[in-house]
């Protein structure tokens, strides 16, 4: 069912869009093209076709969540620019006055 220019003007008025006559004609043609494609899709026989979540056939790419041994502390601190008593030492990021407040 094609849409008319009057319907496009009415929709534009509801949306508070000020359309020029040429824009009304262009939008009418564009909307009718979209409606025509939808009608063609409705004509496709999909009886017995399972719905798809996506068309690519992808499966989960996540690996299993299995605990693995981590890096030893000494190895982690080996290239640290500043290590102290087994920890990374970093510059203070909060001003001293704010830390006491």
Describe this structure in words.
The chain is mostly helical and 101 residues long. The chain is 42% helix and 4% strand. The chain is built from 4 helices and 2 strands, in the order αααββα. The chain has helices at residues 5-14, 21-42, 73-77, 96-100, and strands at 83-84, 87-88. It has a two-stranded antiparallel ribbon with strand order 1-2. Strand 1 and strand 2 (87-88) form a beta hairpin. The chain is elongated, with a radius of gyration of 32 Å. The N and C termini lie far apart (70 Å).
Task: Give the topology.
Elements: H1 5-14, H2 21-42, H3 73-77, E1 83-84, E2 87-88, H4 96-100
Antiparallel strand pairs: 1-2
Quick overview of this protein structure:
42% of the residues lie in helices and 4% in strands.
Pick out its properties.
two-stranded antiparallel sheet; mainly alpha
Low-confidence region ranges: none
- In the sheet with the most strands, the strands line up as 1-2
Query: Roughly what is the average pLDDT, rounded to an integer?
Result: 90
Give the tally of β-strands: 2
Percent range of helical residues: 40-55%
Give the SSE string.
HHHEEH
Overall 3D shape: elongated
Our estimate of the beta-strand percent is under 5%
- SS-derived structural category: mainly alpha
In oligomeric terms, what are we looking at?
Answer: single chain
DSSP helical segment count: 4
N→C terminal distance: 70 Å
Radius of gyration: 32 Å
Biggest sheet, open or closed, and with what strands and sense? 2 strands, antiparallel
């Amino acid at each position: 069912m094609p849409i008319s220019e009057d319907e496009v003007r009415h929709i534009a008025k509801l949306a508070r869009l000020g359309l020029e006559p040429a824009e009304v004609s262009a939008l009418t043609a564009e909307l009718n093209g979209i409606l025509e494609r939808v009608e063609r899709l409705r004509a496709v026989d999909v009886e017995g076709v399972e719905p798809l979540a996506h068309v690519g056939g992808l499966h989960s790419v996540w690996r299993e969540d299995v605990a693995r041994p981590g890096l030893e502390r000494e190895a982690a601190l080996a290239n640290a620019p500043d290590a102290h008593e087994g920890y990374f030492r970093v510059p203070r990021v909060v001003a001293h006055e704010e830390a006491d407040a």
